Amino acid sequence: MAKNTKPSKKPSPPGRGTLQRALTTGQSQKSLTLGELAHRLGGKVVGNKGISIRGVMTIDEAREGDITFIANEKYSKKLATTRASAVIVSPEFQAVGATLAVAQKNRAGASPAPTRPALLVTENPYLAFARAVDLFKPEEIHPKGIHPTATICPTARLGQEVSIYPRVFVGERTRLGERVVIMPNVYVGEDCQIGEDTILYPNVVIYTGTIIGKGVRIHSNTVIGSSGFGFAPEEEGYFPIHQVGNTILEDEVEIGANTTIQRGALGATRIGRGTKIGSQVQIAHNVEIGENTLLIGQVGIAGSAKIGSRVILAGGVGVVGHVTVGDDVKVGARSGVTNDLPSGGTYLGYPAEPIKKMRRTQVAMHRLPAMMELLRSLKKQVAEIEERLSK
Amino acid sequence: MAKNTKPSKKPSPPGRGTLQRALTTGQSQKSLTLGELAHRLGGKVVGNKGISIRGVMTIDEAREGDITFIANEKYSKKLATTRASAVIVSPEFQAVGATLAVAQKNRAGASPAPTRPALLVTENPYLAFARAVDLFKPEEIHPKGIHPTATICPTARLGQEVSIYPRVFVGERTRLGERVVIMPNVYVGEDCQIGEDTILYPNVVIYTGTIIGKGVRIHSNTVIGSSGFGFAPEEEGYFPIHQVGNTILEDEVEIGANTTIQRGALGATRIGRGTKIGSQVQIAHNVEIGENTLLIGQVGIAGSAKIGSRVILAGGVGVVGHVTVGDDVKVGARSGVTNDLPSGGTYLGYPAEPIKKMRRTQVAMHRLPAMMELLRSLKKQVAEIEERLSK
Amino acid sequence: MAKNTKPSKKPSPPGRGTLQRALTTGQSQKSLTLGELAHRLGGKVVGNKGISIRGVMTIDEAREGDITFIANEKYSKKLATTRASAVIVSPEFQAVGATLAVAQKNRAGASPAPTRPALLVTENPYLAFARAVDLFKPEEIHPKGIHPTATICPTARLGQEVSIYPRVFVGERTRLGERVVIMPNVYVGEDCQIGEDTILYPNVVIYTGTIIGKGVRIHSNTVIGSSGFGFAPEEEGYFPIHQVGNTILEDEVEIGANTTIQRGALGATRIGRGTKIGSQVQIAHNVEIGENTLLIGQVGIAGSAKIGSRVILAGGVGVVGHVTVGDDVKVGARSGVTNDLPSGGTYLGYPAEPIKKMRRTQVAMHRLPAMMELLRSLKKQVAEIEERLSK
Predict the structure, then answer these.
(1) What value of ipTM does the predicted structure carry?
(2) What's the Cα-to-Cα distance from C290 to each of B342, C16, C249, C326, rounded to whole Å?
(3) Would the pTM count as exceeding 0.95?
(4) Which of residues 6-25 of A touch C (CB under 8 A)?
């Protein structure tokens, strides 16, 4: 088969080459004046509105024609040395950081940038930066149609303009919405629904009965709807609890790589609209997560836990089964949530406690050896006193 | 190739559609009277033996015709509002919970269930529930035969009635027992043995030389027998220790998704009969695990550790290398086992300590700031006393 | 297609059968005298130089003709019972351990080995053992050429003597060096570079724009270059920060199974030459890791952290974003690094502290309940004293 020998004669999935050129150069073919950019992102220019911006890059790697940003004071001194043509900053930074940077530049005598970069001043530099990347990012183009090596079961129904890459499997009665992209070696089981504009990256596995909304992205080797951990002890060994529920991912959910979400034992495991989940995350059966919640990498959530909306669980946080975490709760990295948490607080540690309390405890912990010393000497003193008094 | 275009002409893996209807409705085509069900599960009925049960569902989502269960007192009040036709409960619950539930119902005035559900009273409600799910679960049907896109190496030997899905790879000299099911994109290396009735879900990878028993289930993207972490420091950098051992999974082992079990450096990594392993678990080279042990999600076990039988390691527990954990040990979530643990105890924390001791320590920790206060004031008092006495 | 039916007529990837015979017997076809072996590994023989060594095995499983090693005093007593023909030991062990072992042998009266094993005495037994395994390990042979079911995009360029297994995908403009091995179901995106002698195991996914050096090994289901976790909060929900950077793995990097390395948001995520990464590891965008560093299983490193060279992070260690860990730092299992760490220290705990300090703190923690007791009784005594004095 000619298409499989090299060089190939047969048309094969065309390039995300544009994306790639951007990946390697940090610049696309697009170009905007700094003035136009400020208008699109919202913000005012300090410096030359007319300069041409062709890409976004980190402050260290930026070259002429790039715009970069400083969201973290820690990096303010770099303003003196960056080769970027423009820098997105906050009003506070403009007031303090910029002058600070110049002072440091003079002090440190660091090899100076050829020209002082212009500033794009905005209330939310991080959001402006994100929008700038979006403006300059090249289109991610996927070929329309179904590759001949894909297996589409007879009763599956596919929407218009889908992109089905080589060796994809789509099970019986599964429905794909318009413009769905399924990359190589993805398995989608029977009776699934996948909403329009959703992208599944290579080697993702979607188990039977999963329901996925619109504009969802799931990265490689993530598994949705595998069987949860359910075993009832009997005289000897365990009786398996067949997991006959399913998994529901609402619109605009994004999931990283090598993450696992298990289907409900009965009923559903549910991830709410706009929630973002990192890589290497484990979510057990019948967990319910609200909207616009962030779960960073390596988070683990045990069965039937309920997590609210706009919650942030930092990297490696664990949540035990059957607890409820209220809306807008924040939990620090590697903490262990062992009880219900009311809405709105910030927690740390294992068991997770309000962060101020936990910090005091941590400080005290490191004074423990000294405390023990003091305690011993006091004991001695008191003993001596009692001896004197008893005479 | 017609089979790859849509709609497909070629027979393709037939449905687990029955399963799916169950997945979406929670009910199958089967129907039993509550009396028959009580007879099969063991237990006595309080209420109408004649009512027809057609499925099992959670207490919140149950409808007429469903049976549900209450294993956790926490949910007892739901008895007043569930729409289930019957509820599996323990004798204690029947005595206490039921009346409690009614009381709460009257107090709360919650929208009442149309009819009070019948009770199925049994010593082990959780096991009875598991058996009920098993009774009503539809068969998971896999098509027999070998899909034409699978690669079966010439010297591989396959048992009767195997189901080999598209694009499976089976290496040289590998033997598959009867009724083995291997789903799409699974890779099985050379010289493996897989026992009868074992199921490998999509994208599982089995490295060369792995031995798998009967009735084993391995979920998607799990890797069995990859190379362990062995590097001997030399003058500069590391000399790789080639991992030439293998991996042995005994009968009825079940493994979740995205889990990794590494082959022995020399000799074998061994998982004992009936042991159940969750998702996102990492088991290093030459670990030995006994029978009917439970490792929940995100557990990590370092090289050459020995874990006994009927052990339970809760979510995220870590075990360091070369330690021995005795039979029937339980370790609480996120604990770190750094030393040998004798049989039968329950442990918590890092380093893991007997749970009662650890709980006292945790309580004391949170009193630390107060203790420091008290200590300072005592120091002051004692100083004053000494001053008075010295006069 | 005959090649897909069983038994197959078509030549298919030939065996790593030699490897496998070694896997199951622990011995290869090679044979060396102990004298020759000592010469090759460096070290002196105590005992019969002439005996024939045909393989390497663990001290428990070794048979006649095997050499084994004792690196850990803990196992010294096994010298009395091993059936190995020879044992690699350190000079210290020879002086102490050997006689100790004999003493224990006499005391324990354990069923003795048929003959006392010869000793191969060397300064670095572990390295000598690694080299012995390397000497006896059979070649891992991969068939040269491109399997007809692989998809090689037209503009991809492949070096001489590559081994491309079934159903591999190689994207546009990607370049593979000489002797690269890509096993079944691997996806390599567009515009990647993969250096000579690199091996990708089954189901690995390499995202667009990844650059991989020479002699790299990446184990199954690992994902390189997936999109990092970048979302800028806006009025409602989050604005995605498109991750347009890439990932660079330098020469001789080795990566375990089910690990995730995310590409840079802008610029690159970089793993330095000779660094070894375990399984189930999560490395976030723009992390930079030096040379010959070891990251054991389940380590997690947050965005933009910088890890030095020759660092060792034990299993499950977490590192927060934007911190710097100096060269030669060691961090104990499950610790959490929350601040910059200077070069060369050893740290433990969360937050990670110098190990000696942390051990003192841990000891003190477990004395806390006793301390509270003492504190209460002192308080009482002092109160009594004051009362007496006030009279």
Answers:
(1) 0.87
(2) 41, 34, 11, 10
(3) no
(4) 6-9, 12-17, 19-20, 22-24
